[in-house]
Amino acid sequence: MDHSNHPRLQAADLTEANLSGAKVYGPDNETIGTVSHVHGAGESTEVVIDVGGFLGLGSKPVLVHVRELDFMRDETGTVHALSRWTKDDLKALPEHQH
Fold first, then answer.
1. What domains sit in the chain, N to C, each tagged with a CATH number?
2. 69 and 24 in contact (C-beta within 8 Å)?
3. Going by DSSP bridges, is the β-strand pair 79-83/23-25 parallel, antiparallel, or unpaired?
């Protein structure tokens, strides 16, 4: 997927309604996780990404700051994010406890 033409989300768009369920892509354009839930809104937002597993089973939730991701909308308006991390990088982070 070519992300270069996708408009980036502004701080006001960084809400749970927009970010929950967003796919997160790694540096090789592979899907590395999905945003399961959001803490806060705007530039102080933190997102929980479910990494690994299959159909939501066995995944590991990790917490990252929204500034570490590049959220955007594709041609259909679907929100997704780019990350500099690989799936293994995210799996190495501490597990987020709800």
1. 11-91 (2.30.30.240)
2. yes
3. parallel
Distance CA 68, CA 13 (A): 16
Which residues are CB-contacts of 68 (< 8 A; sequence separation ≥ 6)?
A: 83, 84, 85
Using CA atoms, how far apart are residues 66 and 63, in angstroms rounded to an integer?
A: 9
- Cβ-based neighbours of 97, under 8 Å, separated by 6 or more: none
Copy the structure tokens of residue 65. 């700051």
Mean of all residue pLDDT scores within the chain? 91
In whole angstroms, give the CA distance from residue 94 to residue 74: 30
Residue 95 is classified by DSSP as P
Condensed to tens digits (0 to 9), the pLDDT of residues 38-64 reads 998 888 899 999 998 766 567 899 999
- pTM for the model stands at 0.90
**DSSP secondary structure code for residue 57 in this structure:** B
